[in-house]
């Protein structure tokens, strides 16, 4: 039996690619320097998998930004605003699409299915002149082959690419993107022909949209596309890979009947119902790539259970047609447990990062072939038993408090309109109040202070002094800019989830468990291994200190329970909603303590609420019910005069707008600018929103500084569909990734735009 890995983390065990990218973007290193770091990383990944015994090793899963943008480059689908003139796409054009530049904004960025990874959304229309403009897939295959590693080149499948795209600006929103299949397939044929000529014997086409609820015409597009590609694929073994959920019955039927396809890959961790379809109707003579090792979490595989499942599948498809695989790309997990020095031995024994998962996959393949490593399986069984019986996992008081939540929907006693009136009397804000989302730039000096404090190189007194000075700088800047509701800038926090997890029980933390979110942005998700509670206040000290520096309202800044859950590696031994309710109770304690300390505006970020939405519509209602309920638990007991904000970003919110309203926050700030303001369309279509709302007026993920006129134009578009008395003016997201030289003029222009429109509105009365 053979083994396979869908994809592998790109950043490197010590985030080598992140630092190389940022050095290049800052002009401190050359394109050649960046390419050298990238080549070294690819080489080490291929060698690692080869040494581990993996037979089907992927190539072209490395990316400088994301695999969908790589496909856009391959197809030459560059929007005209980037002034690309043809030829092989270079870094300048590639990164302008991803990040924008001084002249034009970036393309839209959104979440990759229900993960915390992001991709750049292709902008397509009838006038796009597709051309073969990036030979990356072929070049990386040749690169690996020159090192003695025969890989499986991976491409985003043509139908999924189009289904993940959007009509370009100026193109009718009803434009049928699948009508472009005939234009992009010739380029896929060119790529396939070059891969065959280079010696490739296998190719992997990722078609993850097959796990979605697809209408019949979309399923027919798969049939059409692969029938068209059949002659080009002749002579190759072709794997079509799916992941993240079950493949619905009709999609399974379509998938397994595709022309020219040799093998099918399924996520059997999140897609357990697909098993029944495999058992009843998997096509004879085809390969089954069985995704039994979880690519989205860090728990060690239950090898005995996975081996039993593989043995069952062996009886269905035959030993020579069964391949042990990961459930999806390992991009979504941390790189290597060997780099961990902070974790104690007990918790460490429960875990497996990407490097360990590669070993698990091969161990399962060998066991099924009759070469079982008894010692490895025995150690795994002992770790599984240890985790189930460990007293540190269970807290009876927490479980009792969580169980007591049943039977109440936890709503504030007064409706939002009355609360807003009470809050306005207390806060006395102008119309179109301005604010920011929370974080301010994280300077090199600030990171040094936090690093030295953690390493015990400076005293607590020195640390408090340095952070207080940073907060004062941020407060003074906001007052100078005349922002209405202030933030303290979060200088004490490296990461919004990690910061809270470090202060909650039931969490563990890694030293190097970094995971790519987008571009060079990496996060270090906490590990929720046990029941969650809050031993003591987490933010009251810094919020109170910041409020003492100003007479303006100072927001208390918290991360909401659903976002903490979705941005952590979550225990898999109880339902996710039970863990979320535990976190909600901990945040509720913090909200009440902030209110007692005199904080009158409290922001509870739920940036990842939409991200956790299941991929299948039939499962939406259950998730949204407990997710929204969890948010309401956090602030159910506070006074009407305390204003609750929440923030959401970089997802499509239109389909859950009614659940957002049901959260019953007083004010929501929400990403809007980078997605062509499509959020506003729900209000144009008649959705009534009575709470405060701040659709973002500029994109903070781009270094570009928007003009006052551009921001004013956005605000006026908002006023066309939203009442003046509920609209807030704010950026899309927090400012931690930007520089002060970008932040100050952008906020200056934002405040100026708000004041200009206030004057216009006053004179129009």
TrEMBL record:
Catalytic activity annotation: 5-methyltetrahydropteroyltri-L-glutamate + L-homocysteine = tetrahydropteroyltri-L-glutamate + L-methionine
GO biological process, one term: methylation
Zinc among keywords: yes
EC number, as in UniProt: 2.1.1.14
GO MF term list: methyltransferase activity
Pathway entry: Amino-acid biosynthesis; L-methionine biosynthesis via de novo pathway; L-methionine from L-homocysteine (MetE route): step 1/1
Domain called Cobalamin-independent methionine synthase MetE N-terminal: residue spans: 3-316
PANTHER family reported in the protein's UniProt record: 5-METHYLTETRAHYDROPTEROYLTRIGLUTAMATE--HOMOCYSTEINE METHYLTRANSFERASE (PTHR30519)
Family according to the record: Belongs to the vitamin-B12 independent methionine synthase family.
Name the record gives this protein: 5-methyltetrahydropteroyltriglutamate--homocysteine S-methyltransferase
Species of provenance: Solanum pennellii (Tomato)
């Amino acid at each position: 039996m053979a083994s396979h890995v869908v994809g592998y983390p790109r950043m490197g065990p010590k985030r080598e690619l992140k630092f190389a990218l940022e050095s290049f973007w800052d002009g401190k290193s050359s394109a050649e320097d960046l390419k050298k770091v990238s080549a070294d990383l690819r080489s080490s990944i291929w060698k690692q998998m080869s040494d581990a015994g993996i037979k089907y090793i992927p190539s072209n899963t490395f990316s400088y930004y994301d695999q969908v943008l790589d496909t856009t480059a391959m197809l030459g689908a560059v929007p005209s605003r980037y002034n690309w003139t043809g030829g092989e796409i270079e870094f300048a054009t590639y990164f302008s699409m991803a990040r924008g530049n001084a002249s034009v904004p970036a393309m839209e960025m959104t979440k990759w299915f229900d993960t915390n990874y992001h991709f750049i959304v292709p902008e397509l229309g009838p006038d796009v002149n597709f051309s073969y403009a990036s030979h990356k897939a072929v070049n990386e295959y040749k690169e690996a082959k020159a090192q003695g590693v025969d890989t499986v080149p991976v491409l985003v499948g043509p139908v999924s690419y189009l289904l993940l795209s959007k009509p370009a600006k100026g193109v009718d929103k009803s434009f049928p993107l699948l009508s472009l299949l005939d234009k992009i397939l010739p380029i896929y044929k060119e790529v396939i022909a070059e891969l065959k000529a280079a010696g490739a014997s296998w190719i992997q086409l990722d078609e993850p949209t097959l796990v979605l609820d697809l209408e019949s015409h979309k399923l027919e597009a798969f049939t059409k596309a692969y029938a068209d590609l059949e002659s080009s694929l002749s002579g190759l073994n072709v794997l079509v890979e799916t992941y993240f959920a079950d493949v619905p019955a009709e999609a399974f039927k379509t998938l397994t009947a595709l022309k020219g396809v040799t093998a099918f890959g399924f996520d059997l961790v999140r897609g357990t119902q697909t098993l029944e379809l495999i058992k009843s109707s998997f096509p004879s003579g085809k390969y089954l790539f069985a995704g039994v090792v979880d690519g989205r979490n860090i728990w060690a595989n239950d090898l005995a259970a996975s081996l039993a499942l593989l043995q069952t599948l062996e009886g269905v498809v035959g030993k020579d047609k069964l391949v042990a695989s990961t459930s999806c790309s390992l991009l979504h997990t941390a790189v290597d447990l060997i780099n961990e020095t902070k974790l104690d031995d007990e918790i460490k024994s429960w875990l497996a990062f990407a490097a360990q998962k590669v070993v698990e996959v091969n161990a399962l393949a060998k066991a099924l072939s009759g070469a079982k490593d008894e010692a490895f399986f025995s150690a795994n069984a002992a770790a599984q038993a240890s985790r189930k019986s460990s007293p540190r996992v269970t807290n009876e008081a927490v479980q009792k408090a969580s169980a007591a939540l049943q039977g109440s929907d936890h709503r504030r006693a007064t409706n939002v309109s009355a609360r807003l009136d009470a809050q306005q009397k207390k806060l006395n804000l102008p119309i179109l109040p301005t604010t920011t989302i929370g974080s301010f730039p994280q300077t090199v000096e600030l990171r040094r202070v936090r690093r030295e404090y953690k390493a015990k190189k400076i005293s607590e007194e020195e640390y408090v002094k340095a952070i207080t000075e940073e907060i004062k700088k941020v407060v003074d800047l906001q007052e100078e800019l005349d922002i209405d509701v202030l933030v303290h800038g979060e200088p004490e926090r490296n990461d919004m989830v990690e910061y809270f997890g470090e202060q909650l029980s039931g969490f563990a933390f890694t030293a190097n468990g970094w995971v790519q979110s987008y571009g060079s942005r990496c996060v270090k998700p906490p590990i929720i291994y046990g029941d969650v509670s809050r031993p003591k206040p987490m933010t009251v000290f810094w919020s109170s200190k910041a409020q003492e520096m100003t007479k303006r309202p100072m927001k208390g800044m918290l991360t909401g329970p659903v976002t903490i859950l979705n941005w952590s590696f979550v225990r898999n031994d109880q339902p996710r909603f039970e863990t979320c309710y535990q976190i909600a109770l901990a945040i509720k304690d913090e909200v009440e303590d902030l209110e007692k300390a005199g904080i009158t505006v409290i922001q509870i970020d739920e940036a990842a609420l939409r991200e956790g939405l299941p991929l299948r519509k039939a499962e939406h209602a259950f998730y949204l019910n407990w997710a929204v309920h969890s948010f309401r638990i956090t602030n159910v007991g506070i006074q009407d005069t305390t204003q609750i904000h929440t923030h959401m970003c970089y997802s499509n919110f239109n389909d859950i707008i009614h659940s957002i309203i049901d959260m019953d926050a007083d004010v929501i700030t929400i990403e809007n600018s980078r997605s062509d303001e499509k959020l506003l369309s729900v209000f144009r279509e008649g959705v009534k929103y009575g709470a405060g709302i701040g659709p973002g007026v500029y994109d903070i993920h781009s270094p570009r500084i928007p003009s006052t006129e551009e921001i004013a134009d956005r605000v006026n578009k908002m006023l066309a569909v939203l009442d003046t008395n509920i609209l807030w003016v704010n950026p899309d997201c927090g400012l931690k990734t930007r520089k002060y030289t970008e932040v100050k003029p952008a906020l200056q222009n934002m405040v100026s735009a708000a004041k200009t429109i206030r004057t216009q509105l006053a004179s129009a009365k």
